[in-house]
Amino acid sequence: MQRFSVRASLLAAALVAPALSWGACAAAASSRADVAPRDLYRRRCSACHVPRDPARYDFATLNRFLDRFAWRAGVTDDEKPIIREFLKSSARDAAPVAAK
């Protein structure tokens, strides 16, 4: 009987831990409306992993990442276009900025 309860406890922990960590990712990411886009990107994405350098990816890939994982990082509907614009301007295929 003791053996069954240990197995049941391990199984429950294995099933619950990922759900709790996803919730922690969202809870760990807080933002303010006046945060710079780069800082907002770093804050939200670092809730779950080291933020990737957007210049390593084309915009289409970054956009898919944002659409797929925004909920996990707690990105709000107001923040999503700000982060998307930052990724668009920072992506590998971004248009070069003209020198002034």
Describe it for me?
- This protein is an all-alpha fold and 100 residues long.
- It has one domain.
- It contains 4 helices and no strands.
- It has helices at 2-28, 37-45, 59-73, 80-90.
- Number of domain modules: 1
Measure the end-to-end span: 76 Å
Tell me how many strands there are. Answer: 0
pLDDT under 50 segments (min length 5)? 15-31
Category from helices, strands and their pairing: mainly alpha
Strand content: under 5%
Supply the key terms.
single chain; 62% helix; mainly alpha; 100 residues
Task: Provide a brief overview of the structure.
The chain has 4 helices and no strands. The protein is globular.
Task: Draw up the topology in text.
Layout: H1 2-28, H2 37-45, H3 59-73, H4 80-90
Helix pairs in contact: 2-4, 3-4
